[in-house]
Design goal:
By secondary structure, this protein is α+β, with helices and mostly antiparallel strands. 19% of the residues lie in helices and 42% in strands. It is built from 3 helices and 12 strands, in the order βββββββαβββββαα. Strand 5 and strand 6 form a beta hairpin. It is elongated.
Amino acid sequence: MAQNMQWTNLNEQTVYENRWFRVRLADVALPDGNRLDHFLIRMRPVAVATSVNAANEVLLLWRHRFITDSWGWELAAGVVEDGEEIAAAAAREMEEETGWRPGPLRHLMTVEPSNGLTDARHHLYWSESATYTGPPQDGFESSRREWIPLKLVPDLIARGEVPAAGMAAGLLMLHALRLG
């Protein structure tokens, strides 16, 4: 018979907070009765969106991440504002970051990129159409925005050119949905 290995969060205190996240210290009871202090980060949900056109090209952003000092392909993404619907936030982020307004969005998947440290949930959406509305409002977030053939996605990921795990998972899911 399987033993219950559930950890129990008995109490949390805020150590630091800003508009994007809160660092908390939790008092955790382990299954064996021992307790430990565990730091965690509470975050707003993240909304992610892209579009795949009729030629099976996916809209990606090429950007640098200073934290890891790495370059890579990403999908448009950002935090969901208070009172904002997640799909609406995904559409807003895509247009702000790429200059393309998505057509009707479909939920692709929800992932937890680092659930041993943070409660961040990334909600990924996609559409089968997009309309160019002009230069991106948040153009400073990426060096370029390109329509990349979806068939190239597995190789991009294998070469480490899509470093964000949740985005890699979403792109592989799109690849499977569209190309089989």
